[in-house]
Amino acid sequence: MYRSYRLNLAYKTDESTLKEYFSRYGDLVTVQIKRNPDSNASKGFGFIRYSDIQSQIMCLSERHNIDGRWCDVRIPISKLEGDRQEVSRKVFVGGITEFITADLLRDHFSQFGRVIDVFIPKPFRSFAFVSFEDPQVATDLLGKDQVIEGVTLSIGSAVPKLPPQQN
Length: 167
Description:
By secondary structure, the protein is an alpha+beta fold. The chain has two domains: 4-74, RRM (RNA recognition motif) domain (Alpha-Beta Plaits, 2-Layer Sandwich); 79-157, 2-Layer Sandwich (Alpha-Beta Plaits). Helices cover 22% and strands 34% of the residues. It is built from five helices and eleven strands, in the order βαββαβββαβαββαββ. It has helices at residues 15-22, 53-60, 79-84, 102-109, 135-141, and strands at residues 4-8, 28-35, 42-50, 64-66, 69-71, 73-74, 90-94, 115-119, 127-132, 146-148, 151-157. A five-stranded antiparallel sheet has the order 8-9-7-11-10. Strands 2-3-1-6 form a four-stranded antiparallel sheet. The protein has a two-stranded antiparallel sheet with strand order 4-5. β10 and β11 (151-157) form a beta hairpin. It holds the Pfam family RRM_1. GO terms for molecular function: RNA binding. Its main location: nucleus.
């Protein structure tokens, strides 16, 4: 089995929709939407896991629009990765639209601390990275959604890609 991927989702998306959508890339062994234990309402994110590496690669190579929302597919931070992660000045900003510019991001995040870099990949892939002068600012923002131009953005750790495992 291969690692699970975290997805930011529309609140109306359910497990059957996820399974139907992502099964086009291969055999899914996990499809899970995180829910509020009191109301059973979606928390707006979930996880998928594939049984083979080819499916994983195909899934990560494309953008995904599910129930009218562009979904980021990314690797969650595991305890193992957290143990070896250095203090980072950079945060991952997920869920941006084509209308959210580097200047808008810089202006918004400057309220928390001095921004030293904003990176939006080209071609556009609905995420960005924001780097701060003070690593504590980045740490304080983790997991705290932000709203810019009416768009809710998820803030996560900017985890570097792991090197391939040697067998």
